[in-house]
Every structure is written in structure tokens, then in C-alpha cells.
Amino acid sequence: MDHVEPTFEVLEPILANSQFAITVADTKGLLTIFNVAAEKLTGYTREEVLGTSVTRFYEEEEECFALWERVRLQGKIEGYETNMVHKNGELVPVSLFLAEIHDECGRVVGSMALSMDQREKDRLASDLEREKSRVRFYNDVLRHDIRNATQTISGYLQMLVDRRECRGDGVAAKAVEVCLRQARRIRDLIENVGILERIENRGERITQSVDMVTLVREVVGLVRDTYSDRDLKMEVSLPPQDVFVIESCPLLKDALFNLVDNAVAHNGSSEPWVSVKLEHEPGVEASSREKFDKYRITIEDNGPGIAEVNKDLIFQRYIRLCVGGSGLGLSVVKAVVKRCEGEVWVEDRVEGCPEKGARFVLELYSRPRNKRTTGRVLE
After folding, report:
1. Element (H or E) spanning 337, and its range?
2. pLDDT tens-digit map of 241-294
3. Is 247 helix (H, G, I), strand (E, B) or coil?
């Protein structure tokens, strides 16, 4: 058992603080590791049980032998529920994870068991459900109150837009219109939080028809409004048709806004430049041999770019590579695009030169539609 004992010495601080009862036995079934949580679960001290058989914790030895035979055949067992015999004779309902331990040559040198009191597991699950219910309640309250406040703001802004004296002042009229559009965006965001909750927590599949060209135009307009005080150059390229309707997740607009907004917000250049390009490729064959229309949106910038080692990290939840922000933005973008059965990734605008800017690519697929009308390319 020399192969297992040194492992315990290295991991002892971790084992001591684990909430799982962790036990390790050699190939004869004799205990070699018994952590603090195992002591609390069984009532035995480590000194009392080390070197003794693991069968003492089972009502019937046959159950213990049958379990380890299953582990030998399957490699591991997860979520097995049984009763463990406490030192005082009480039967403690537990949930077990059992697995073999191998040495560096792949030989079996022992076995490991992770145990949790099923009553504690049920209590934690109940506490978690209560917390989720509380968060949903707070979320509903916040959405309701913010929605009402936004409606009031939008109403007064619309009143200003309609006033004759405001229309006579071009600067004031422009400012009010921008504020009105942003207020409407806040309203849409509040609604979309509800949609996201239904998608993520309830597993609902929610789709809506979206014209891709209109989508890109609206997102570009919102970004221009947001950064109207910056000397921002935006290049927008659209395909030569106006109507490209697909069925997508209602949050696609917000996902695209996040990508374009990031290209500006984290640019840092004295002359920020962003390019948004929509391309359409009809008749792309899927693995099922069914034909689809492919839509590719690329967002390029002349900002600091993203190092190769960070290209995957930025889409992970709570990973933040810049000052400010929650680290949720791009992880939500990836989740939304996945709901649309699409893909999103980042690459160098100039291959091999991340310092020359980034290129985010979003690809979506849709069954082809017949309706097409003539369009144009925006400046």
C-alpha cells in the first residue's frame, strides 16, 4: 500500500477540510485513509479504524463485496444509496461514490469511497431550492419595478419628442431621441432577463423570427448612440438582399450588441475603428445532408486584441480579463448562440498578430426561405 499512503500525506490538508467522508482501502479492503468528515459520519476516530476492514460500515458484508465487484467491472459507481452503520449502531442513510485507485503503471492499488449523509444532502438541496426561489422572487420584483420606471421615463421622453419647441432644437431633439431609444433598450433587456430565466432554469425552447439585416442595423445604431461622444468609425457591410429571416433565440440581438459594444468599449485606440459584416451563404449541407442557409457575422476592431491563451477563457463564466465588468457578458453570448444552434469564437484580425485587433465570428444556420428583396450596403 506504499503507493497510496504518500498520496494521503500530500493531500491531508485538503482531505481534512472536505465535506465528503473520504475513505481509502488497499486491495485487501483494509482502511488506509479516513478523513475528518468520515469520523463525523461514522462516529469512529481515524486511529480506531485504520488497518481494519471496510465491511464494518455495511449492514451485510455481502453488499460490500457486491459493490466492489461492480467497481472492479465498471471502474466506478456514482450515486449509490445505502445505509452505513454508525459506531453507536444507528443506520445512517448515505449516498456513495466508489472508484478504483491505480498506480502510474495502471495497476489497481486500492479503492476509494466518497460518502455523504443523505439527510444532509437532502437538506442542502432543500436550502438550494429555497435560495433559487428567493432569487427568482427578487428578480421578478426588480424586473417589475424597473419596467414601470422605464415606461414612465419613455413616456416623458416621447412627450418631449412631440413638443414643437423641442423639434426646433436639433441638438435637444437628437439627445431626447437617443435617450428614448436607450430607455426602450432597457425595457427590452428587462423582458429578456425573464426570457433567459425561462430558457436556463425551465429548459423552455423559445424562438422568434428575426430579419438578420434589420438585426445588424439596429445593433449598429444602438452602439453608435451609446458612443456618440467618441470619434468612432464604424464600417458596416450587408449582403445584397434585405430580407433574411431566421428563427432564433429572442436574446440574439443582445448577444450581438454585446460583441459589438465590447469591440468599442475595450478598444483603447485614439481612433477606434470597428467593422461589422454580415455574409449569407445559401445551400450549405449539414451532417444530415439537409441544406441550410449559413449566416456569418464578423466584428473586427483595431483594439489591443486577445492573446492566444485567453481566446477560450473569455467565454467562460466569471472569467474577467479586463478592469470592470462582471465576467458574465461573453459567457451569456456563448449560451445564447448555442441556444440558436450556432457558434461563436474569437480570432486575430491579422493572423498571428493579436496586438493588431480581434475578430469575433458568429455563425448561424437556418432553413432557406424563398422571399428575397433588393438591398444595399451601409457606409
Report:
1. helix 329-339
2. 666 788 777 788 888 998 999 899 888 888 889 999 999 888 787 666 678 888
3. strand
For residues 281 and 292, is the Cβ–Cβ distance under 8 A? no
- Which H/E stretch holds residue 273? strand 273-285
**127-180 pLDDT, tens digit each:** 888 877 777 666 666 666 677 777 778 777 777 777 766 666 677 777 777 787
Q: What is the rounded distance in angstroms from the CA atom of residue 192 to the CA atom of residue 174?
A: 27
Block residue for cell numbers 456514482: 78
Half-sphere exposure of 295 (CA within 13 A, CB side): 28
Residue 345: predicted pLDDT = 94
What ranges do the domains of the chain cover?
5-117, 207-379
Whole-prediction pTM:
0.52
The helix/strand/coil state of 260 is helix
- Three-state DSSP class for residue 75: coil
One DSSP character per residue, 7-74 reads HHHHHHHHHHH-SSEEEEE-TTSBEEEE-HHHHHHHS--HHHHTTSBGGGGBS-HHHHHHHHHHHHHH
* CATH assignment of 207-379, among 2.60.40.3410, 3.30.565.10, 2.60.40.2250, 3.80.30.20: 3.30.565.10
CATH architecture of 5-117: 2-Layer Sandwich (3.30)
SS (H, E, C) 103-163: CCCCCEEEEEEEEEEHHHHHHHHHHHHHHHHHHHHHHHHHHHHHHHHHHHHHHHHHHHHHC
How many Cα atoms occupy the beta-carbon half-sphere of 264 within 13 Å?
24
Q: What is the pLDDT of residues 291-328, one digit of tens each?
A: 888 899 999 999 989 988 888 888 876 544 444 443 34
| Tens of pLDDT, residues 14-60 | 777 788 899 999 999 999 999 999 999 999 999 999 999 999 999 89
Cell of 172: 435637444
Distance in angstroms (rounded) separating the CA atoms of residues 297 and 9: 53
* C-alpha cell, 255: 448577444
SS3 98: strand
Which residues are CB-neighbours of 83 under 8 A, at least 6 positions away? 59, 91, 92, 93, 94
